[in-house]
Amino acid sequence: MRQKRAKAYERLMTAYERYFRYRQPYQILIDDAFALNLHRAQLSPQKQCDMVMRSETKIMITQCTMQALYARGPECQPAVDLAKSFERLHECIKSVVGDTNKHRYVIATTNTELRKHLHSIPGIPILHYNRMVIVLEPPSDATSNRIKQIEGEKVSQSVVEKKVLDGQAKEEAGEKPREENSEQPKKKKRKGPKGPNPLAAKKKKPEKSKPQKHDTDKDDKDAPKKKRSRRRNKIGGDSGSADTPTPATA
């Protein structure tokens, strides 16, 4: 198998797992014609299915298919006539799949009518045999539409969850969430004149403290007056004194 095709099959099965909850190992339900084609080509059903599905697989077959295989033999026509009285092969597979494919079967068939019926049911991977190669069919229109529907539901659900979470966060923060039919919004208050920018205003210089003047006059009055000392000349002092007057001669 080419690497490009293998990656495409892997992406396709990843989508089935994501949107339709398929799980590994995949259960592959085969019909009689598919099994006969693999046997004639000498291909191992288990090995080929594992390679195509890029995973482990579990091959399954219905009782109707077993009866159809037993019915095939050298004398084909009598066995075919006998098989007509039994439960139809493809009706049996339809009943197993139902309307929802509850058990998540991968259907391997070469019957055109059965494939057309399975294309109307979303989420069914289909394998068919084509020139010695097992092919995983691309998703049908029903499957693609169902995937788009699931994606749309996820988007709408995420939007609702976001609104709920936003409302809870506002309530925890003490804010009331907005109601759709709320009252008229309050008028905005007009802003008054703004004061000067405190950063741009000049700072006042601190006033220098003036030294206190002492009342010198008052201090002088209150202070005690000093007494003046007078020097008096002594009379009849020492004989050798130069200040003593000499008597005049006759």
Automatic annotation (TrEMBL):
CDD domains listed in its UniProt record: PIN_ScUtp23p-like (cd09865)
Disordered: annotated segments: 152-250
GO terms, biological process: rRNA processing
rRNA-binding recorded as keyword: no
One Gene Ontology term, aspect cellular component: small-subunit processome
Places the protein is found: Nucleus, Nucleolus
PANTHER family named in the record: RRNA-PROCESSING PROTEIN UTP23 HOMOLOG (PTHR12416)
Domain (UTP23 sensor motif region) ranges: 187-205
Family: Belongs to the UTP23/FCF1 family. UTP23 subfamily.
Domain of life: Eukaryota
Sequence ranges of Basic residues compositional bias: 224-234
Purpose: Involved in rRNA-processing and ribosome biogenesis.
Positions with biased composition (Polar residues): 241-250
Keyword terms of this UniProt record: Nucleus, Ribosome biogenesis, rRNA processing
Nucleus keyword on record: yes
Biased composition (Basic and acidic residues): 152-185, 208-223
The protein's name in its UniProt record: UTP23 sensor motif region domain-containing protein
